[in-house]
Amino acid sequence: MDNELISGAEALMRALENEGVDTLFGYPGGNIMPSYDALYDHKTTLNHILVRHEQAAVHAAQGYARVSGKVGCVIVTSGPGAMNTITGLADAMIDSTPIVVICGQVGAAMLGTDAFQEVDTISVSQPITKWAYQIRHADDVATAVSRAFYIARSGRPGPVVLDFTKNAQTSMTEYHPQKVDFIRSYKPTPSPFREDIERAALLINSSVKPFVLVGQGVELGDAREELRAFLEKAQIPAGCTFLGLSALPSDHPLNMGMLGMHGNLGPNVMTNQCDLLIAVGMRFDDRVTGNLKTYAKQAKIIHFDIDPSEINKNVKVDLAVVGDCKHTLAEVTRLMEKTTHQAWVDGFKPYADREDVKVIQPAIHPTEGPLLMGEVVRRVSEATQDKGILVTDVGQNQMFGCRYFRFTQGRSVVTSGGCGTMGFGLPAAVGATFGAPDRTVCLFVGDGGLQMTIQELGTIMEQRAPVKIVLLNNNFLGNVRQWQYMFFRKRYSFTPMVNPDYEKIAQAYDIPCRTVTERGQLDAAIQEMIDTEGPFLLQCAVKEEDNVLPMTPPGANVDEMLLEVK
Amino acid sequence: MNQEMTKSQCGDCKVCGKCGTLDCPEGRTCYTILVYSENVAGILNQITTVFTRRQVNIESLNVCASSTPGVHKYTITCFCTEEMVIMLTKQIEKKIDVLQAHYFTDEEIFILECSLIKVSTSQMLKDSEIGRIVRRHGARIVEVNPTYSIIEKKGLTEEIVSLFQQLDERGAVLQFVRSGRIVVTKSPVEQLDRYLEERESQRLK
Ligand SMILES: Cc1ncc(C[n+]2csc(CCOP(=O)(O)OP(=O)(O)O)c2C)c(N)n1
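A: This is the predicted complex of the input protein with thiamine diphosphate.
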């Protein structure tokens, strides 16, 4: 056995198994065929999901990774196959999602000759990956794969590309399993300075109005418990970013709601009233901060992050605690005084009440008029006892989804945050069903976004992937229409859209489907969807010209939220 | 070093670097970034895109093997604010195969550049001032043939630029080339060695 010679392609399969890979999303083609041939003998351990477009393979791997905490894995061919992964790579990069994308490549001898289906994948993908590497020798496979997975999952996670030349797939090598957990030029988790931990505790102990911004870093660092202990010890209120939504249960008394342009009123307004702003595993995205010139200027700011290059990038901070927040939060908590900030916490209530009356109740409990996205989302969430996984596409469906879905468990949000990639939802939901097979995966998607990756209904059909697809159909590219309404004098330039008959489409793909046009039909249809085993398409004919509120207009101050639009 | 030459002379110092001005009028400073990386392909590309994204021009760039086997050294100069150079350095260091990136002001480093100036031999023989300029600048004439002569000058940016400008004023210059800056740090601490030692001890754990 020791000196057994196997192909590079076979070595790839063994290396993937060695990394604990159980699921691959992919699409075959010429320059990856040797690897697909090897895969044929590993079908029982490596469950390959044939998608219908390579972009979808990447989004599926992202969905898989986000809900499972494992590294998502993709295998595609060279040239067009590799190029179709680019959008997903960019999305995974900005949202720190650990995936490894293996692309075919022409034989090393033909590199640079403009060979058939040759594209310089490394150069194209380098700016949007954590690491991109070309495997040109079969001997290099075991180490490269282990390095790729180590880089993808460690520190601040991200996407990795392995560009696998055809000759490396076909030539022979001895395979020895590798376990890379050290790269001298790469320090994934910087160690925090004791002094910074102490200073953080000091600042928190002397703060009267502290406020915490919870980001995805808490989920990625598996620090939900540490976060809770931290918040509860000093009774510090918190707001969550999009990607941090399920890091803290929605009904936790200290959870003041969502941050950002369409977030909740309280956390946004109070950002500009607190005396200490504590950011944990978030990166001060412009959709969260609004106008930086007026953002939290009254407050001292502490930034907990694992990535030193995030410190002072957008917002100048008074103190940075660089390191793994699972560790740093716990350390700071130990030095914190047990206390309450009752008056300060109570101060959020009037804003919550105002938003509830003005925005939330009308959105989730309307009594007349057309069906609204908000009520659909809330009913679906309730039907899962708030235990479902929320997957959204991009647009109003995403904003309403994130605003009104509720969370009781971690790793329950799959949405395209930093990139805002329409077409993300459907394939990401497919991936989520493989990453968390025991949970209910609920996708909210618009009529625009669904059609961007609608071919994945084929994957769902073939796999019987139990995606609960909630199509929020408003016959518009709704989010853009809202901006046109608010900022472009209601000139609806190419946002109304003629839709196909989605029931027929569902039927063609053998996916059970129900269309709801009236409020009275909603609950029964949702129950039917939840009770139906496997996939389901619930089409909701929602109000055509609805607006997501509240809203901080682009570039406005974080505390200048509109509760209504004229 | 000729002190007078350190102040802005061409009036367009912030990007052209011609006058070798050390203090940029817009609050930008000349920084030298030293990057050490593993010897793998594609690093240069990754480093330069950090500058492109941040819309900072690279003024000069030198790449060579370092004194440590398998480690490459990049010497990059640019004009920017301190805030920006901190961001650039952190984003470069974030690249997986980059070992270290540090930035320095001119006071913290020993600097050397070299240049070659090709002049017409007949003009040089006609115009005796050319020879005086060359001697005043401590430059060397390394080639003389009936058509052209080559002057070599090593030193600081501003010395080289001064030589070039004075020769150019006399209409003598056929070609001019100036190398990227190379530097060594003045600090007694060798940061790369220290980093590698630290990492090796961590590897063994
Ligand atoms: C790939 C891509 N193209 C374009 C956009 C710009 N965009 C953002 S939201 C949106 C409209 C989405 O419409 P729809 O999918 O129907 O969802 P709705 O907003 O109506 O819920 C568009 C076009 C985008 N985010 N992604």
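The beta strands of chain B are 29-38, 58-65, 71-80, 98-104, 109-120, 140-144, 148-155, 173-178, 182-185. The first strand of chain B starts at residue 29 and ends at 38.
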